[in-house]
Amino acid sequence: MTSSIGQKFETVIGLEVHLQLNTKTKIFCGCANLFGAEPNSLTCPVCLGLPGTLPVLNKAALLSAIKVALALNCSVNPRVKFDRKNYYYPDLPKGYQISQYDLPIAEHGFVMIPVPEGTKKINVKRAHLEEDAGKLVHDMVAHSSLVDYNRTGTPLIEIVTEPDLRSSQEAYDYLNILKLTLQYLNVSDCDMEKGSLRCDANISLREKGSTQLGTKTELKNLNSFRAVKASLEFEVHRQEQLLLAGERIVQETRLWNDEKQMTLSMRSKEEAHDYRYFPEPDLVPFTIDQATIEKVRESLPELPAAKFDRLRKQYQLSDYDAGIIIQDQTIADFFEKCTQHSQEIKKICNWIIGPLLQEINSRKTGLAELSLKPQDLTTLIQRVEEGVLSNLSAKEVFALMVETGQTPDAIIKDKGLAQVSDDSALEGIVQSVIGENQSVVEQIKQGKDSAIGFLVGQAMKKSQGKGNPKKFGELIKRRLQDG
Amino acid sequence: MNLFEHPAHELLDLLKAQKTSAQAIFESVFSHLKQSDKNIKAFVRLSHQLPDFGPAVPSRNYPIPIALKDNICVEGQEVTCCSHILEGFKPPYDATVTQKLKKSGALILGNTNMDEFAFGSSTENSYYGPTRNPWDTACVPGGSSGGSAAAVAAHEAVWALGSDTGGSIRQPAAFCGVVGVKPTYGRVSRYGLIAFASSLDQIGPITKDVTDAALLLNIIAGYDERDSTSVNVPVPDYTKALINDAKGLKIGIPKEYFIEGMDPEVKQSILEAIDVLKKKGAAFKEISLPHTEYAVATYYIIATAEASSNLARYDGVQYGLRLQPQETRKSAIVDMYEETRDQGFGPEAKRRIMLGTYSLSSGYYDAYYLRGQKVRTLIKDDFDQAFKNCDAILTPTAPTTAFRIGEKANDPLSMYLSDIYTISANLAGVPAMSLPCGFSKNGLPIGLQIITQSFAEEMMFRIAYTYEQNTDWHKRKVGQK
């Protein structure tokens, strides 16, 4: 972006993330909480808001929300109270959304994000529980829209930051860390494509040194973290140009257009929307006892940041390696299980970050779906160390392990992949390689030792990868000295 | 005496003695209903499915013909709150009270008339037109449960259920000379009661005498996991509280209730009622409910605020009335909302939606809704204080007897004041009931209100029963002035 942004203005960003909780049932009724079912098949009189029906809070949603609160270092408000947010929209069957207004379940938390100088604290202002609305389906019937109420009543938690983010990169990093943390908690599948994680951004600029907030715009229709980043970059530029030209920023909602890669003003923002919040009289406020909160706290898994630090310290992993390993809880667990069977930490790490992640990515699956046991990977590593397998063969064995779930030893035996280390079997190959590459032999004799590697490579080729390269090297050297 | 004139406890005795049958009771009431209601217009709809008395039907414990106010859901049966906007709405579920009634074997007759969405005190605000008071058909039956009270008074039903948000059971019970009970908030499940003001609404019995009220409350009371505001307190057998004795009971008379505007005949009846109970051993003392004068204002802020939100769902999208104007005004969807709600709601509903919307609006919330909630707490405290010194509070149910149809129709404020004695119990959540305590010179019934502490319905029934057993008002029947 324009260079002057670093000079004259400071970017101020706050994010609102809506997260669908993956409870078995909806937040105020017994309907299944699932994505992708036949339209309106997951509905009942309660979530349809039929006259006379009443909401009953799903305790599982509350427990998930407490989990999120604690993981984001928030204080949990033990007094649970809901409010009605009143507005008209066809996907909102009661004409109000049950939400939390002045007493959110969580307040005053933070998330640490990496910055060039180290880490930075992004304050979480609040997180509150609410129900999701239904979904309008357009263009299926001419001149009208249809409503699918399956999503109505899906438990949502809205997580709002303070305006602490100073760049699109910080926003991007915050979202990634937030998402990873939420995935560790297993409270949501955090899938933006399915809408289980949604993000709106508030952005304004102010002159450097100023402590007042500038006029903000709210960005919506952000369908990926990349879109969040791109829209913020666009908006920084747009606002900057306006301010430099002496114009004013209009407070408005702007929609990100992914095709045009720009934000566009949402026509006629319903100015001063008055939601007329008031306490939901159908749900009596109640108090969560401290023991329940503590029980949730004890049930929390090790969170990504803590795991990152521990893996670095405990296994002397590099920041890079630890950073990749913690991106998936199951991978991190797998890594640690491997270390129980082998001391070759760096090699385990390399196998995981390299071939294993490749397999997972190319199969578009998760580790859990592969029939790979930690002990099998460490056995494989051991066989390479022992000289039984060449690195090349090891990769072949690994692919088969992932494919079939067989042990490496079974595969080695089956496919005859064991490395040949027997001198007499290798001698012949060495002899013919030397015979065929006299010019290289000459170079070596004149002192260019590095050329030995070429001969080893040739020998490996001839042995179809079964020869032990170390052995080949020794034999070649001995030959040349002798000759 | 005709079968249809008996209270339920007598019918149950007759059944026990095998002097009648469920079918005979039903047919007696039903044929009388069809004749009588041409004049009274208590019912807006009869059940689409009449009870089956075939041999395959298991025997019923309480085969009592009962009328339901038109805001209580019965699966598959149209229910409209007497509003145009809900026309054709057939809930796919029973209210919890309906389930309990069906289980008890009660015979549901149909839906009774009410002020639209229970907004009113005369049953004149009904889309279907007014109900007439059986004691004088030029008069209103009270409201909003006027249809239910009139049906019981006119013997068109043995029992009825009403709902009471600010007096909507007790005031029509008083106007129609029957017994009406508003239980403690949370005593009866609201699931399947179409909401007016969620924090105030309670379903309750309307019956011919106190014994029947206790019997019917036994059936409908209890915690319901589908209603978070219902309270998990065991339900006693209320008929065990029917003791003809007031010895040792202390009853408070709030000085703030005996004010200007109280009809002298009403006042006289209450004073006589005090004497009856004194003779049965009760001690009376003056008490104070100091925030009484703010009750009506507080009520109209809180009740309309909740109503404005509760009625937002009637938007024409899913059920009930949907109207689309010919011309496009704003956008198709907004036009539909506006046309549907404009044509679907009557004037009182619109008035209350506007009042409630206003008091919740940003900038006004603190001055109205929030202050209303604070005063509500003060009113609740008044009752807590009062019940430290007495077992029950005795007041008139309404300041006057039934007024004439049309008399207050264009004066909403004076209409609102007819609930002046009943509203506080809803704001405080305490139980209260009305029972007949006399008649005016014009032959119109007068009601006595008994209020007790939350979940002290047994005390309330005991005092009511003692009074009833020592008077004859409940035996007087429509037509025999």
Task: Give a short summary of the structure.
The complex is a heterodimer of chains A (about 475) and B (about 475). Chain A has about 475 residues and is an alpha+beta fold.
Structure keywords:
heterodimer, A: 483 residues, alpha+beta, Arc Repressor Mutant, subunit A, 9-stranded mixed β-sheet, 15 helices, B: 481 residues, alpha/beta, Amidase signature (AS) enzymes, 11-stranded mixed β-sheet, 14 helices, 11 strands, 13% strand, globular
Topology:
The complex is a heterodimer of chains A (483) and B (481).
Chain A: E1 9-20, H1 59-71, E2 75-76, E3 79-80, E4 83-86, E5 96-99, E6 106-115, E7 118-131, E8 135-141, E9 144-148, E10 155-161, H2 168-185, E11 197-207, E12 217-222, H3 225-244, E13 252-257, E14 262-265, E15 278-279, E16 286-287, H4 290-299, H5 304-315, H6 319-325, H7 329-339, H8 345-363, H9 374-385, H10 391-404, H11 408-415, H12 423-436, H13 438-445, H14 452-462, H15 469-482
Parallel strand pairs in A: 12-13
Antiparallel strand pairs in A: 1-10, 1-11, 2-6, 3-16, 4-5, 4-15, 6-7, 7-10, 8-9, 11-12, 13-14
Helix pairs in contact in A: 2-3, 5-6, 7-8, 7-9, 9-10, 12-14, 12-15, 14-15
Chain B: H1 8-16, H2 22-40, E1 43-46, E2 65-69, H3 96-104, E3 107-112, H4 146-153, E4 159-164, H5 170-176, E5 179-182, E6 202-207, H6 210-220, E7 250-254, H7 264-279, E8 283-287, H8 295-310, H9 332-344, H10 347-360, H11 366-386, E9 392-396, H12 412-416, H13 423-428, E10 432-439, E11 445-451, H14 457-469
Parallel strand pairs in B: 2-3, 2-4, 7-8, 7-9
Antiparallel strand pairs in B: 1-3, 4-6, 5-6, 5-10, 9-11, 10-11
